[in-house]
From TrEMBL:
BP GO terms, sorted: regulation of DNA-templated transcription
PROSITE patterns per record: HTH_LUXR_1, HTH_LUXR_2
Keyword Transcription regulation found: yes
Keyword Lipoprotein in annotation: no
Name under which the protein is recorded: DNA-binding response regulator
Signal peptide: none
Keywords on record: DNA-binding, Transcription, Transcription regulation
SMART domains from the UniProt entry: HTH_LUXR
GO molecular function (one): DNA binding
HTH luxR-type domain ranges (all copies): 140-205
């Protein structure tokens, strides 16, 4: 179990921040720091936080992924929670079993979120059952951290300068599906941006050919 003393909320919604800052310090007896996506890294370097709450209603998935990767790489002991997690988009790649303590869908009520955070305070992980099951199914399908054939195809296409829409048209899938393949591949090869992925593919081109 990890003891939470300081939390950080990363959001562009001042209304949400004000609401949570009014409720949570009294409800959970914690200090709540507020950060924009652009200054989260700087604030984490100078503040002793043990939980970072990322608001996905105001942060796009790529930026959220990059923030999550920074937490994983540079801040051992900090856990993350995602609120306003989208049901309609495949965002499972954001969830890391070792560092993600909670996921709350966008239709979760404030009471449900509060109850979930009470469980997190007890050291439990709060991940919706359907999301947890789909992650298990994904693990069973992949069976390793090796790139899938489709992930290799997408990385290969990056080298030609193709956009996500170009790749989607080439592979006859949606643009959001291509983004999902990219984010999963990013995690597997240990990069956090498109440029880093291209550089990796250039160095390991023999590994991404299909």
């Amino acid at each position: 179990m990890f003891k939470i003393v300081n939390w950080m909320i990363v959001s562009r919604s001042q209304l949400l921040i004000d609401l949570l800052n009014f409720r949570w310090p009294q409800e959970f007896l914690v200090k709540l720091a507020k950060a924009q996506p652009g200054n989260m890294v700087k604030m984490l370097a100078v503040q002793d936080n043990s939980l970072v709450i990322i608001d996905l209603s105001t942060i796009d998935l790529q930026q959220a992924y990059q923030l999550q990767r920074i937490i994983e790489r540079e801040h051992n002991g900090i856990h993350s929670v995602f609120i306003n997690f989208p049901r309609q988009m495949d965002a499972k790649f954001l969830v890391h079993p070792a560092t993600t303590s909670g996921v709350f869908y966008s239709d979760a009520t404030l009471a449900e979120v509060s109850n979930g955070f009470n469980e997190i305070l007890k050291g439990r992980s709060i991940i919706p059952q359907d999301l947890h099951q789909s992650m298990l199914n994904l693990d069973n399908e992949d069976d390793s951290e090796q790139l899938t054939i489709r992930e290799r195809e997408v990385l290969q296409a990056l080298l030609s300068g193709s956009t996500n829409l170009d790749i989607a048209n080439q592979l006859f899938v949606s643009e959001s599906t291509i983004k999902t393949h990219l984010y999963r591949a990013f995690r597997k090869i240990g990069v956090s941006s498109r440029g880093q992925a291209i550089a990796w593919a250039q160095t390991h081109i023999h590994e991404v050919r299909v």
